[in-house]
Amino acid sequence: MWVGGCFAGANSARGCRPGCITRSGCRRTAQTCANLLAQEVSLWTFLRHPGVEPTNNAAEQALRTVVLKRKISGPTRSMRGQQFVARGFSAMESCRRQGRDLRDWMEQALRAWLGAGPVPSLLPGG
After folding, report:
1. pLDDT tens digits, 11-50
2. What residue numbers bound the domain in which 63 lies?
């Protein structure tokens, strides 16, 4: 893809002519080129590593439930409420993806908070 005289998919030595970022004539296009070149390694990781997906569909799908529930029930009224909801949904989604029971994890977390057990992990295999 050509953006302001830069080929966004190539490395800067092959795909961009020297000085193309400054020759684009448009400040926004030049900044887009600079941002693409700065993120080049990250943008093309999926080509070098077969297990990496080229899209973020899994992340988008994970957020869909949260967004729909927030849309239906309305926003929280404080930063503390937002953090509580975000952490709750994060724990719920982590447990769901790992095939773990959220209720069991929450019970372990509560026991740990009361000082009656180890802190449970949400990391896979934890």
Report:
1. 444 445 555 555 667 888 888 888 988 998 888 888 888 8
2. 57-125
The pair of structure tokens assigned to 94 is 């982590």
d(CA 85, CA 94): 14
- Please state, in angstroms and rounded to a whole number, the distance separating the CA atoms of residues 121 and 123: 5
4-28 burial by CB neighbour count: b if 16+ within 10 A, else e? bbbbbeeebeebbeeebbeebeeee
Q: Is the residue at 102 inside a domain?
A: yes
CA–CA gap between residue 17 and residue 2 (Å, rounded): 12
CA atoms within 13 A on the CB side of 95: 17
Closest to 106 measured CA to CA, from 70, 90, 64:
90
Residues 50 and 63 in one domain: no
Q: Does 13 fall in a domain?
A: no
| Domain-embedded: residue 64 | yes
pLDDT at 105 over 80: yes
